[in-house]
Amino acid sequence: MSETESAAAAAPPSPTTAAATERKPRRLRGHKKGAVTCCVASSARPGVVASAGEDGCICWFDLRTNDVLLTIEAANKPISSICFKPGNEDFVYASAGNEIFSFDVRMGPQSKPLQTYNYNRDEINQIAVSSKGFLAAADDSGDVKIVNTIQKCLYKRLREAHTSICSSVQFIPWRPWTAITGGLDSKLSAWDFSKGRTLFSIDYGSPELQNGSSSGSAGQCFNPAFVHSIAVPEEGILGGLYKVCAVARGDGAVDVVDLEYELAPAKSKGPRAATSTMSSKRTELGDGSSNQSQVKRIHLDYTMGGHTAAVSCVAFSAFGEKGKFLVSGGNDASVKIWDWSRGFSSETNSNAELVLDIDVKKKVNWLCTTTTDSDNLIVCDTSKVVKVYNFP
């Protein structure tokens, strides 16, 4: 029996969630060969999605049609990550190997790189661009390079940000000098990148967190809690009530972390109460100012109908009330949609809830969401086809 099958057999059925549903997706064809590795949805142009793949191409799709709008042969090697320039989505950045390229999509299929950045010493796993023009690149050496794209120079080098592969990096929109990283050392770290210092770090591989997590006791104990992906929502989701990040873990769990709590000075947090992830899937931490516990982290695992293998990617929803849903994809060939904010609710016995479970047949590499005439979930898997699912 495979590891995934054994984990699935160990997982008890959840009475609050439906079985995985099979949905027939639309298929967007544009890539020539290999897997589609990543995608990003335009916020300025609803329904426009860019994807990149192992064929070294970047493809643009308009979900109102099935045809590819534009294909740029960006690199002669697989592209690992793409992102738009905030505020001007005519510009896109792509990483391939240890290099980063920028393109102006208005130049069409014959577009050549406007800039090439070659500061990373090892293969880049993810890139991100901030509203201030800083470009972050996380690589296999564990380093993160911060590039000033305005002055076109290396700004800061976060040396050995992680003791293993640094898999993910994101900027925090409401804190313009703060970045957050995750790695295969099972750590989530926040940085003041202007000074190159760590603001906080969570070690998901620590005995304290491993013992407090129910996922470690049934089928997932052989999968380390590597951090594979991080999602940070736009500022002001759900009326500005929550400033969080989501973490995709190698042990099949998804965590949602209250960033403002973690970034607050230690003296303002007060004594920490005992964690209670076993029963409520929430870590409740006292803030020292009242008798009520405040939920600062929620933990979504197989006992709630979650993943039975490593979670490869997470994203906050663009449809409906922005950020209300959290979408996760995994190596168990499933996509889960969670109503995560219920877990932060002050209502008694209010827990995060799995609202949709989609069997997508193949391992999920990346996903994003967008809205046009309908709400769309875009999935990149191990095939060369981009798949579009309607929600709900």
From TrEMBL:
This is Transducin/WD40 repeat-like superfamily protein. Residues 1-20 have a biased composition (Low complexity). The keyword Cytoplasm does not apply. Keywords: WD repeat. PANTHER family: TRANSDUCIN/WD40 REPEAT-LIKE SUPERFAMILY PROTEIN (PTHR45296), TRANSDUCIN_WD40 REPEAT-LIKE SUPERFAMILY PROTEIN (PTHR45296:SF1). Residues 1-29, 270-292 are annotated as: Disordered. PROSITE patterns: WD_REPEATS_2 (PS50082), WD_REPEATS_REGION (PS50294). It holds the Pfam family WD40. WD repeats lie at residues 304-348.
